[in-house]
Design a protein that fits this description.
Layout (H helix, E strand, L loop, with lengths): L3 E3 L9 H8 L4 H10 L4 E5 L4 H12 L19 H4 L5 E8 L8 H6 L5 E2 L8 H20 L4 E4 L7 H7 L4 E2 L5 E2 L7 E8 L19 H4 L5 E3 L2 E2 L5 H7 L6 H7 L2 E3 L3 H4 L26 H5 L3 H7 L9 H15 L4 H9 L6 H22 L1
Helix pairs in contact: 14-16
C-alpha cells in the first residue's frame, strides 16, 4: 500500500541559495508545534544516511529471517536510501504517536488466563495506518502553507522505509535488543511515521542505546524469536505467525503461542523502560468490542459477518476470517480443558476451510492427550 503522495512540479530545490531562502521561512520548532496539535507525541528530523543499517538489514535478509515476507526484499536499496525511493529527498521528519489504551484490561492478567483471548494492545482500537497518514498529510499541508509547494511523501508503515533507524537518527529513541524502538522517557508503546521531503532541515542528534546489560526481552519471548541481541528471526515471532503467515502455523510453535490470537507484546511487557510508557490520548485507539479480554469461545463462535463487523476499521481485519479462526483454534488447544472448550472446537471440526480444520484437529488432539495423561 502506497503512502500519501503529493509531488509538485518544480518544487525540488535547484541551488543552495533557494534552499537557504526556504530555511528562513520554516522553523523546525514551528513544525513541532503543529505536530503536537495533531496528536503526535514527539517529532524529530533524521539524518538520512543509513549505510550501517543497510548492511544490517541485508544480513537479516540473507539469513532468511523475513520468512514469507518477500516484500521486505522486493525494493532493493530503496528501503535504506530515502533519495532512491523519493528522488530529491534531503530530510526526513520522524514522528511518534502513543497507542497504549489506558482503559484496557491488564495485559499480564489476560495472558495468565487461558480462557481469554490476548490481542496485542496496539490493535485494540482503530487501525493506525489511515489515521496517521491523514495527520501526516495535514502536517504537510501546514508546512506547504509556510514555504509554498514542495516535494514530499508521507508514510505510516506503508512503504519500504527503515522507520526505526530513521526514528533513532531523529532522536526519538534507540533500537532495543528486541528490535523495537525505545524512548527513555516513554517506553516503546507507540507508532512511527515519516515524511520524506526536499527541504533541507537541520537534523536532530541521534539517540544512543541504553539497554546496557539488560536482556530481559530475550528469554521473555515465548518462541525464542530474539535469537541474539538486536536480532529477530521473524519466522519464530508470534506476531509474524498470527498476522503475516498465511499458511499453517508450524506445530513446534503452537503450544508456545498460548492464548495470543493476534500479535504479541511479551518482549515489551518485561522491558523496564516501559514503566515510563504513557497511555494514549487518542480516542480512536480506545478498546473496541471488549477485545482486551474476550472469551476465546466467544470470538471463535463469531460468524464471518460478525468478524467483519467487529473488526471493521481495525488492524485485525487484515488477517481475514480464516486466519482469525486458525489463531483462535490454536489458543483453544492451549486453553484449560473443559466441556465448553471442547464443544466449541468440535463445532468447527467440519469447517469448510482446510486450514481451520487442521488447527481444530490439532487443538482437539491436545485436549485428548491431556485428558489421557490426567487419567493415567
Amino acid at each position: 500500500m502506497d503512502g500519501v503522495t503529493r509531488e509538485y512540479t518544480g518544487a525540488m530545490f535547484e541551488d543552495d541559495a533557494r534552499a537557504a531562502a526556504s530555511l528562513r521561512t520554516i522553523r523546525v520548532d514551528d513544525i513541532r508545534v503543529w505536530a503536537a496539535e495533531l496528536g503526535f507525541a514527539r517529532i524529530g528530523v533524521a539524518n538520512i544516511d543509513l549505510a550501517g543499517d543497510e548492511a544490517h538489514f541485508r544480513d537479516w535478509l540473507v539469513a532468511g529471517f523475513n520468512g514469507d515476507m518477500e516484500y521486505m526484499a522486493r525494493h532493493g536499496t530503496k528501503r535504506s536510501r530515502p533519495a532512491e525511493l523519493l528522488p530529491g529527498t534531503v530530510s526526513c521528519i520522524s514522528v511518534r504517536m502513543d497507542y497504549w489504551p489506558h482503559a484496557a484490561a491488564d495485559a499480564t492478567s489476560v495472558l495468565e488466563d487461558g480462557n481469554l483471548a490476548y490481542v496485542s494492545r496496539y490493535a485494540l482500537g482503530r487501525d493506525y495506518h489511515k489515521l496517521m497518514r491523514n495527520r501526516l498529510q495535514t502536517l504537510c499541508d501546514r508546512i506547504a502553507g509556510a514555504v509554498g509547494a514542495f516535494g514530499y511523501r508521507a508514510f505510516a508503515d506503508s512503504a519500504p522505509v527503515l522507520e526505526k533507524a530513521l526514528a533513532r537518527n531523529a532522536g526519538l529513541g534507540w533500537i532495543g535488543k528486541h528490535t523495537n524502538l525505545i524512548d527513555a522517557k516513554a517506553g516503546s508503546y507507540f507508532f512511527l511515521g515519516e515524511i520524506y521531503l526536499d527541504i533541507p532541515l537541520p537534523p536532530d542528534e541521534a539517540s544512543t542505546a541504553h539497554c546496557g546489560t539488560c536482556s530481559a526481552c530475550i528469554p521473555a519471548c515465548p518462541t525464542g524469536a530474539i535469537v541474539a541481541p538486536y536480532r529477530l528471526d521473524a519466522r519464530r515471532c508470534i506476531s509474524y505467525l498470527t498476522i503475516e503467515l498465511k499458511d499453517s502455523i508450524p506445530v513446534e510453535f503452537r503450544r508456545a503461542i498460548g492464548n495470543r490470537i493476534y500479535g504479541c507484546d511479551d518482549c515489551q511487557l518485561v522491558c523496564p523502560w516501559n514503566k515510563f510508557a504513557r497511555p494514549t490520548l487518542e480516542q480512536d485507539f480506545a478498546v473496541r468490542h471488549g477485545l482486551d479480554r474476550s472469551q476465546l469461545v466467544t470470538v471463535f463462535a463469531w460468524s464471518e459477518a460478525e468478524f467483519a463487523d467487529k473488526t471493521r476499521g481495525s488492524a485485525i481485519s487484515r488477517i481475514g476470517y480464516e486466519r482469525w479462526l486458525r489463531n483462535v483454534a490454536v489458543a483453544l488447544g492451549n486453553a484449560p480443558t473443559s466441556p465448553q472448550i471442547v464443544a466449541a472446537l468440535q463445532a468447527r471440526a467440519g469447517a469448510s476451510s482446510e486450514l481451520v480444520r487442521e488447527h481444530v484437529a490439532w487443538a482437539l488432539a491436545e485436549h485428548r492427550h491431556r485428558a489421557a495423561a490426567a487419567s493415567s
